[in-house]
Design a protein that fits this description.
mainly alpha; globular; 9 helices; three-stranded parallel β-sheet
Length: 229
C-alpha cells in the first residue's frame, strides 16, 4: 500500500509540478554566529537541509532555491519602528570587524528602550547574540518570507506552498524589538513572519485582505502579538 501511495504521489508531481513545495534557504542565514554551543545555531538549519536531502520521498516533493533578495529596510519598517531598525543597522556597523558575537538584548535596551545602565541585562547571561553576519542574515530571512508571499500570490505561481528555512527566528521581536515587559529578545532580531504579513497586506492589497499567523512554539510569540495588535 505504501508503494502505491508513493507511485500515486510521483504521478501527481509529474502532472502538476506546482504541487512541489518551494523551500527557500540562503547561505547568509548561516552567518548569524551565536557561538558553538548555542541552541539557535547554524547547525539547526544544516540539520533540516540534510534531513530533506536524505529523505528520498521528501526530496522529490520539494524544490530548493536561494534565488531571492534580502528585504529592504523599508520592508522591515512595515512591521518594526524606524528607531529599532536604525539601532540594529548601527549595531551591524559597529561589529563589522568583530570576530565574536556580542550580547544583543542590552544594546536594544539602551539604544531603543533607553533603559538606565543599572538595569541593563547582564551580558554574561544574555541568550540573544549579534555578530557581523546577523544583520545580513535577518534581512535575508525577511526577504525569504516576502518572496514566498510574492510567489504564492502570483497568478502564474510555479508553487502553491513555500517553506522558508531561515534564521534568525523572529516571533519574540515586537514593534521595537524587545518588548517593554520582556527580559530577553528570545534569539530574535526581526520578526520575519510579520514583515511578510505586512508585505502581503500592503503590496497585495487587492488579493489579500487578511492574514492568519499560526505560531507553533513552546513559548508565546509575544513579538508577533505586539506587531499585529
Amino acid at each position: 500500500r505504501f508503494q502505491k501511495i508513493q507511485a500515486t504521489r510521483a504521478v501527481f508531481l509529474q502532472l502538476d509540478p506546482s504541487l512541489r513545495v518551494l523551500v527557500l534557504h540562503h547561505k547568509d542565514c548561516l552567518d548569524h554566529d551565536t557561538s558553538a554551543r548555542h541552541q539557535e545555531a547554524p547547525r539547526r538549519i544544516v540539520a533540516i537541509l540534510e534531513a530533506m536531502e536524505k529523505d528520498t520521498e521528501l526530496s522529490e516533493s520539494i524544490t530548493l532555491s536561494d534565488d531571492f533578495e534580502p528585504a529592504t529596510l523599508d520592508m522591515v519598517m512595515k512591521a518594526h519602528a524606524p528607531e529599532y531598525v536604525s539601532c540594529v543597522a548601527e549595531l551591524a556597523q559597529k561589529v563589522a570587524c568583530s570576530t565574536c558575537p556580542i550580547a544583543f538584548t542590552p544594546r536594544v535596551q539602551s539604544g531603543v528602550r533607553r533603559t538606565p545602565p543599572a538595569h541593563l541585562k547582564n551580558e554574561a547571561s544574555c541568550d540573544t547574540l549579534f555578530s557581523k553576519g546577523s544583520f545580513k542574515a535577518a534581512l535575508r530571512a525577511c526577504g525569504a518570507v516576502t518572496h514566498a508571499v510574492d510567489t504564492i500570490v502570483s497568478p502564474s505561481a510555479p508553487h502553491r506552498a513555500v517553506f522558508c528555512c531561515v534564521r534568525p527566528p523572529g516571533h519574540h521581536s515586537g514593534v521595537k524589538g524587545l518588548l517593554w515587559n520582556a527580559e530577553s529578545c528570545g534569539f530574535c532580531i526581526f520578526n520575519n513572519v510579520c514583515v511578510g504579513a505586512m508585505h502581503a497586506l500592503t503590496e497585495h492589497a487587492d488579493e489579500i485582505k487578511k492574514v492568519a499567523i499560526i505560531d507553533f512554539d513552546v513559548h508565546h510569540g509575544n513579538g508577533t502579538e505586539d506587531i499585529i495588535r
